[in-house]
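Fig. S4 source data, part A: sequence.
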Amino acid sequence: MRIEHKLLTVLSRQDVDRLLDSTGDLKYKAMLATMYSSVLRVSKVIHLHYEDISQTNEQIHVRESKSRMDRYTILSRRNLDLLTEYWFQGGRPQDILFPNKFTGGYLTVSTLEQVMRRSVRDVELPAGATPHSLRHSFATHPMEVASPLPSRLQCGVHGHLYAVCHSRTPQTQICCVSLLIYSEAIFRASPGRIGSGSRASPSS
């Protein structure tokens, strides 16, 4: 029996801007932005801890991936600024980065899915857009930007940047830096910079 595979809905960069702008709660806006610009699944974002965010290295520590290994992924400056603003306004959480405000524990996947559905509906984006669409959208957006290095495109598709950023070879490090540049270029959560460089953001 043939199994039907449906294509995921991919959002444009302008759609991502509108989605984030329509998400009024700063916590959920930061979570959606992190899913997009760091190419993370919902389950990984809700399980992030304060110590996983490195300002100095501009990266996020991802615990126990599908291969049961820890890894690192990119963290754009704009997303770091957004996370910093959330961290200060959200009571400076020292353990779980995005805690449930009632229990203090982890949020559920369905909670973030509901938030995204509401934002998608508010700005009339395609109904099939889900949190998973964000990471796939990011993977396609570098292809819309001119690149002098073909390897940049090869490294950005469907989460391959995880292996790239974990590697220590010069070639893959160049690729990881290239993806970080792309992240800075295509992620526009809001006009201008958010936060202040004088404030200590989530881990340094």
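Fig. S4 source data, part B ends here. Residues 3 and 169 are 39 Å apart (CA to CA).
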